UniProtKB/TrEMBL annotation:
SUPFAM superfamilies cross-referenced by the UniProt entry: Phosphotyrosine protein phosphatases I
Domain Phosphotyrosine protein phosphatase I: 7-145
InterPro entries: Ptyr_pPase (IPR023485), Ptyr_pPase_sf (IPR036196)
PANTHER family: ARSENATE REDUCTASE (PTHR43428:SF1)
Taxonomy, superkingdom: Bacteria
Protein name: Protein-tyrosine-phosphatase
Keyword tags: Arsenical resistance
Xref: Pfam families: LMWPc (PF01451)
Length: 171
């Protein structure tokens, strides 16, 4: 039986330092046999947030090679062809994105920014964990979609639905 091609998924956030990094790590860990997760930002920061990296490591998720990068890296010749794009912050969702080769399906999965939480390190860790749990739930729902039975429009609708239904439930 021929091996099925893995789907490439890009998670976007403005600085590519927290939520998009968490989503990239979670997808690669929980569905890496069928998906390849990437992350990028419209205005990448100095690097991944240390709380994001610490959380991923605490979940036994590899952080090797993770870095903050521009979304322009994925819109040039030779970049991986992206099948699905998720914006995970409201700022990135409102920005004008590059034209993506292959016209991937897109959805917005807004998650509160844990890096904006002020307080103790414990309070910050808790905010990162909450963001990670929200993203993981959405990723699990997404990766369990019956892609072979859905057309492009149905997949797009399901992607949007996952983000909006969990947001309404406060998850």
């Amino acid at each position: 039986m021929p091996e099925q091609r893995k789907y490439n998924v890009l998670f976007l956030c403005t600085h590519n330092s927290a939520r998009s990094i968490l989503a990239e790590g979670a997808l690669n860990e929980f569905a890496g046999d069928r998906f390849v997760g990437f992350s990028a930002g419209s205005h990448p920061g100095k690097g991944p947030n240390p709380f994001a990296l610490d959380l991923l490591r605490s979940q036994n998720i590899s952080t090797e090679g993770m870095r903050s990068k521009s979304w322009d890296e994925f819109a040039v010749d030779g970049a991986p062809q992206i099948d699905f794009i998720f914006t995970v912050c409201d700022d990135a969702a409102g920005e004008v994105c590059p034209i993506w080769p292959g016209h991937p399906a897109k959805a917005h999965w807004g998650v509160p920014d844990p890096s904006r939480v002020e307080g103790t390190d414990e309070e910050k860790r808790k905010a990162f964990l909450q963001a990670f749990i929200q993203l993981r739930k959405r990723i699990e729902l997404f990766t369990n979609l019956p892609f072979e039975k859905l057309d492009r429009i149905a997949v797009q609708q399901e992607m949007q639905s996952i983000g909006s239904s969990l947001r309404e439930k406060g998850e």
